Amino acid sequence: MRRDLIRQFLYDMLLARLFEQAAAEQYLQGRIGGFLHLYPGEEAVAVGTLRAADPGDYVVSTYREHVHALVRGTPPEAVMAELFGKATGCSRGYGGSMHLFDAERRFLGGYAIVGETFPVAIGVAYWLRLNEEPDVVLCYFGDGAVNQGTFHESLNMAALWKLPVLFVCENNRYQIGTEIHRHSAVPEVWRRACAYGMEGRRVDGMDVLAVHEATREALRHVREGKGPFLLECETYRFRGHSMADSGAYRSALEVAELRARDPLEGLRRRALAEGWLGEGEVAELERRARKAVQAAVRFAEQSPPPTELHRDVYAQPLDVYAPEIPARRAAP
Amino acid sequence: MAEMALWEAVRRAHDEELANDPMVIVMGEDVGLAGGTYKATLGLYEKYGPERVIDTPISENSFTGLGIGASFLGVRPIIEIMSVNFAWLALDQIANTAAKVRYMSGGQLQAPVVIRSPGGVAHQLGAQHSARMEKVFMGIAGLRVVTPSNPRQAYGLLKSAVRCDDPVFINEHEYMYNLRGEVPDEEYFHPLEGSEVARPGRDVTLFGYNISVHWCLQAAERLAAEHGIDCEVVDLYALSPLDREGIARSVTRTHRAVIVEEAEAPCGVGAEVMAIIDEECFYELDAPPLRVSARNVPIPYNRTLERAAIPNADEVVAAVLHLLGK
Ligand SMILES: Cc1ncc(C[n+]2csc(CCOP(=O)(O)OP(=O)(O)O)c2C)c(N)n1
Ligand SMILES: [Mg+2]
Asked: Which residues are bridge partners to B208 per DSSP?
C-alpha cells in the first residue's frame, strides 16, 4: 500500500517536472504562445492534495494549473495539445495554458483572473449541497489571491452555509515580483480562516507525504459536514512567475536555499534511503514519465488546429451584432 | 525631438509629474520594486520612495478606491491596473465613486485620479486577457477616456490627465509599449479632447484610435498606391468626449467614413461615431458609413483564430473598396 502510493507520488512528480520542462522548451521554440506559468518546485502541493482526494471530487484552479490537470488524469497529450492551441487539446485549442478544462474528470478549469476561483468553487459546492452529493470541491489559489475581496466574501459564505470546500493555498511567497511580507498584513494565510470560524492549518508544501496526510485529515473534516477548511501549503516556484519573468527580484541565495529543498529530489532520496523503492524502479518511473512527455509533444505537433471562430459563444449559434467585413449591406 | 519607445514616454511623464507635485503618487501591482510590468515606472521607486510609488496587493477595487478617496483631499494618484482585464474588478469604484462624486455631492468633492491600463489583443493571451474595455468606460458619465496611438500622445495625455480635475481613464495597448516615435524635448501637454488628422485625404475618412490608427495608416498607403484612393486618417485619441466637430469636419470634406475598432461592434466606438455622423452631417454622406470591428466572440487562444477575430489593414482596405463600389 505505502509503496504503491510512493511510486504514484514519484511518478506524478516526475511527469510534472518533465512536462513543464518540455512546455518551456516548446514555448522558446514559438510553438506555445501567451503567458506560460510553470509549476517546478510546487509539485508536492498538487500531487499531495489531489492524490488524497476522491475521483468524484471537483477541482477549480488558476492559470498555473497544468499539473493539477495531469494529476487529475487528463492525458498529457490533451494538456500539451491545448498549450499548442490544437483542436485535440482539453479545451479544443480555445483556452490555452491558463484555461485548461476537463469536465469529465471534474476538473472545472483554470482561471486567469486572480481571486476568481473562490466564488466558482463555492458555487460548485452549493450544487453538491443541493443534490446531497458526498463529494467536495478543492479550490486552488496563490498567496497573492487572498487579498482579493472574493477570498473573504467566499470564505464567509462557505463557512456560513458549511459548504464542502477545501481551500488550498499554494503559498510560494510571491505575487509576481511582490514578496508576501510586502503584500499581506498577515502572511500566515491559514490564520485568516479563524476570522470566519473556519478550520485551517499550514503544512510544509515541499513534502508530498506531509501534504498528503494533511489533506486527508482536512478532507475528512469537510466530508463529515463540519464545514470548509483552509489548507496553506508553503512552497516555492523555482522559475520566474511566467516565461516572461526572469525572477530577478529574488536573491540567488534564497533561490538556492529553496532549490535545496526540491520536493521531487526529496522524495526520490527518501524513497531510496528508506528502501521504499529500488534504484531500478526509480529509473523505470523516470523513463516512463519521459516517454509520456515525448509522446505528448509529438501528439501536439501532429494535431490539427481548431477552425471555427464562432462555435460555443452561445448554446445555439446566434447572429448577434456580427457584421462581417465587408458589410453585408449592398453598396449604394 | 527625441525618439523613444512608448513605455519610455509614459515613464518620463510619470517622472516629471512626480517631480512637479508632491501630491502625485503612483500605485499598482509591481509598479515599485519590480519597475512595472511594462517598465512604465522603472526606477521611480528608487527615486521617489515607497510612499509615493506604491506596490499594492491584488485588490483592484480597493486600491483603486484608495486612490479615489485620497484624491478627494488633493492627492493626485496615477493608478496602474496591470491589464485592463482586471479593471472589471475596479469598475465599482471607478463608475460608482470616481465618476459620480462631483455630481452627487453637488460639486463639493472631486476625484482627480488617473487610471491607466493596457488592453487589447496581444499574443495569445486568451479569453480572459484580451479585453478591449474602452466602450465600457466611454459609457460612464463623469469619466474621461483617452487612448494614445504613439509615444508623443502617451506622454502628453498622461501629463494632462494628472493635471485634470476629472477622473481620466487612459487606455493603452499591450502590444504598443515598444512602439517608437518622436516626443518633444520640452514639456508637452496633449489636449484631453479633440482629434488629430494623422493623414490628410479627400476620398474617404478612416477613423481609428490606439492600435487601429496604425491599421488605418497602412490601409491608406496601400489604397493610395494600388487604387489611387486618397484616404484621410483621423486619430480619435479622445474617446470621451468624442470630437463631434472634428468628426463632422472630416466627413464633410470626404463624404465617406469607415470606423476601425479593435473591439467588438456592439455599443462601441464605431456605433458612437456613426451616430455622431448621423446627427451632425448625415446629408454630407455619399454612402452609408461602415465599421470594421472585431468578431463578436471571446478571444480564442489558437493564434490563427485569434488573428481572425480582430481586424487588420486588409479588412480596412476591403471595406474602403466596398464603400467606393470597387
Ligand atoms: C485580478 C487580477 N489581477 C492581477 C492579475 C495579474 N497577475 C497574474 S498572476 C499574479 C500574481 C498572483 O500571485 P499568487 O496568487 O501568489 O499566485 P502565483 O502566481 O504565485 O501562483 C498577478 C498579479 C490577474 N491575473 N488578475
Ligand atoms: Mg504566489
From this structure: B235
pLDDT tens, position by position, A28-70 = 999 999 999 999 999 999 999 999 999 999 999 999 999 999 9
Residue with cell 520594486: B33
- The cell numbers describing A117, all together, are 476561483
CA separation for the pair B3, B185 (Å, rounded): 10
Could you read off the pLDDT of A195-236 as tens digits, one per residue? 999 999 999 999 999 999 999 999 999 999 999 999 999 999
Which H/E stretch holds residue A309? Answer: none
Residue B258: how many CA atoms within 13 Å on its side-chain side? 31
- Report the pocket of ligand 1 as residue ranges, CB < 6 Å: A 64, 112-115, 142-145, 170, 172, 174-176, 241; B 29, 58, 60, 82, 86, 89
Residue type at A154 in one-letter notation = S
Chain B residue closest in CA terms to A319: B296
Mean pLDDT of A87-104: 98
- Average pLDDT score over chain A: 95
B 61-80 → A contacts, CB under 8 A: 61-62
pLDDT grade, residue A324 (50/70/90)? low
Say how far residue A25 (Cα) sits from the centre of its chain: 20
pLDDT tens by residue, B119-159? 999 999 999 999 999 999 999 999 999 999 999 999 999 99
Task: State in Å: Cα A170 to ligand 2 middle.
Answer: 7
Report whether B17 contacts B69 (CB < 8 A). Answer: no
What's the CA-to-centroid distance between B272 and ligand 2, angstroms?
Answer: 42
The pTM of this model reads: 0.96
Look up residue B143 and give its three cell numbers: 469619466
Q: How far apart are CA B212 and CA B268, in angstroms?
A: 14
**Angstrom distance (rounded) from CA B144 to CA B24:** 19
Tell me whether residues A35 and B296 touch, CB distance under 8 A. Answer: no
Look up residue B145 and give its three cell numbers: 477616456
CATH architecture of A2-321: 3-Layer(aba) Sandwich (3.40)
Grid coordinates representing B298?
A: 471571446
Rounded to two decimals, the ipTM of the complex is: 0.96
Chain centroid, CA B18 distance in Å: 22
